[in-house]
Write a structure and sequence with these properties.
Blueprint (H helix, E strand, L loop, with lengths): L4 H6 L12 H18 L6 H8 L3 H7 L3 H12 L11 H17 L6 H4 L7 H28 L9 H18 L6 H15 L2
Helix pairs in contact: 2-3, 2-5, 5-8, 6-8, 6-10, 8-9, 9-10
Length: 202
């Protein structure tokens, strides 16, 4: 419904009271969340522990983040760089570019935090929404665009289910990254890509 000038005058915009938010507080809180995730994992993370490490009150945290899931999403959002579609002109080179880029992200200190939330995805709406929108969907869009171009160029069979092909290709990154303490290597990534292409080549 449209608002009349009279209504606007009788309902002035309220300015927030108190001091403006201090960006140092956000940095301290997200930094504490990051360290506690590494030390204790998702299950051991609490807002009280974050407040204690950051040197702020719990009320200060709840003014900005409604719960610990929001804190975790804040940490991940600051750390994860979405994967771009490289479009090199070669299916193999495209896939290697995406896979090695993902490898570097997941091997980094911040990227490793993604593996802390994977077990929580089925039961946490906020974390699942973040994973789907910022990790899985950009991955999927980039990989499936590469696969579609591979079919057009005659590098991949047209009867291959692109969604299943994407899932088969990306699963080793998540599985190995989540279960092996060692970092994923370029040699592993190259092997996965070549095995995949051996099964779908035209």
């Amino acid at each position: 419904m449209a608002t009349t000038p009279t209504e606007k005058q009788s309902n002035p915009v309220r300015r927030p009271r108190g001091r403006p938010r201090d960006p140092r507080v956000e940095g301290a809180v997200l930094g504490a969340t990051r360290e506690l995730l590494r030390e204790r994992g998702y299950g051991g993370l609490t807002v009280a522990a974050v407040a204690d490490m950051a040197g702020v009150g719990k009320g200060t945290i709840y003014l900005r983040w409604p719960d610990k899931d929001a804190l975790v999403v804040g940490v991940l959002a600051a750390a994860w760089t979405p994967i771009d579609d490289p479009d090199t002109g070669s299916l193999r080179d495209d896939l290697l570019a995406i896979m090695t880029g993902s490898m570097r992200e997941l091997n980094g200190r911040e990227g490793r935090l993604l593996f802390e939330i994977i077990p929580e995805l089925p039961r946490c709406d906020a974390l699942r929404a973040y994973w789907n929108s910022e990790v899985a969907r950009p991955w999927g869009s980039a990989v499936m665009a590469c696969l579609a171009r591979g079919v057009e160029r005659g590098e991949m069979r047209a009867d291959v289910d692109v969604m299943q092909a994407y899932q088969m290709l990306m699963s080793p990154l998540v599985t190995v990254g989540a279960t092996d303490e060692k970092k994923i290597t370029t040699k592993q990534v190259t092997t996965w890509v070549d095995i995949f292409l051996g099964g779908v080549a035209a």
